[in-house]
């Protein structure tokens, strides 16, 4: 077993990645509650936005403007998909809804493979100005980018909770989560609420794509399938609680990264999100069965 000192840098990295997984997971939960759609294309949208940002910066565009283009792209693509296909999927089976977003993932992934080919061993990187600056705690060096990753997750979770609780649009989203048909009969503009949920989820996908491109790698495959970690956090929270999603995302990030310095488990670190989600779902299902059996008794 490695020493405690060997684990410390991976704890910092795990918390930073957990914060990014949290903001993606919050977007997944809010969209699911408002529309019933599990947005599997979230990672691909963020990945393509990050690659567009890389190309624009390489062409001489200012960093902040390229970042804005990424958010506009991810939000616009997600909103367009939701407005075109959302009404068609509204009354379909959850499996059909998820499969439809998987189709979008494959389309975007194919487009990225054609536009940003990796042949020739080209290495791309997207760096933030905060990468080279930070502070130390003991023997650990923490960059401001890592602080931003965790801080963004905290801010998005808290801000979304406040939005859902104290705004009219947030109240409408919570009402749709409880009963969509009754909410519509009460005069709530369902399409407008859904549009806000799609747009918000897309913007969060863009933010996550930028941060993960810097902290992990600017690679279409890697970024596209990092949505699995966010989805695992959302599944642990049963696609209901954004607070629980935040805690689950930190757990996924920590466990995934703390397996890396253990030689015998390094190759299994990518499986951690699947295992944690499966265990959580089994435990939650068991509790529900026990509770129902007690009620019947």
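^ Assign residues to that structure.
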């Amino acid at each position: 077993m490695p020493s405690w000192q060997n684990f410390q840098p991976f704890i910092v990295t795990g918390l930073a990645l957990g914060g990014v997984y949290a903001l993606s997971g919050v977007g997944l939960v809010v969209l699911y509650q408002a529309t019933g759609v599990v947005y599997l294309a979230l990672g691909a949208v963020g990945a393509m936005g990050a690659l567009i940002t890389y190309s624009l910066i390489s062409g001489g565009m200012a960093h902040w403007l390229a970042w804005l283009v990424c958010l506009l792209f991810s939000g616009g693509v997600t909103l367009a998909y939701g407005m075109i296909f959302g009404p068609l999927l509204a009354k379909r089976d959850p499996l059909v809804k998820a499969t439809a977003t998987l189709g979008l993932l494959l389309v975007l992934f194919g487009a990225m493979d054609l536009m940003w080919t990796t042949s020739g061993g080209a290495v791309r990187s997207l760096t933030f100005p905060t990468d080279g600056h930070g502070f130390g705690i003991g023997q650990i060096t923490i960059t401001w980018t890592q602080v931003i990753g965790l801080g963004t997750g905290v801010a998005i979770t808290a801000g979304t909770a406040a939005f859902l609780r104290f705004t009219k649009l947030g109240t409408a989203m919570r009402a749709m989560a409880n009963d969509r048909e009754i909410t519509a009969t009460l005069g709530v503009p369902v399409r407008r609420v859904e549009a806000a949920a799609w747009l918000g989820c897309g913007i969060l996908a863009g933010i996550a794509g930028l941060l993960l491109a810097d902290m992990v790698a600017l690679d279409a495959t890697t970024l596209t399938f990092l949505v699995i970690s966010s989805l695992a956090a959302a599944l642990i929270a049963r696609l209901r609680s954004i607070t629980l999603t935040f805690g689950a995302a930190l757990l996924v990030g920590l466990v995934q990264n703390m397996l890396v310095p253990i030689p015998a488990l390094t190759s299994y670190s990518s499986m951690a999100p699947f295992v944690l989600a499966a265990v959580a779902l089994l435990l939650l299902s068991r509790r529900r069965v026990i509770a129902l059996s007690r009620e019947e008794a």
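The longest helix spans residues 4-35.
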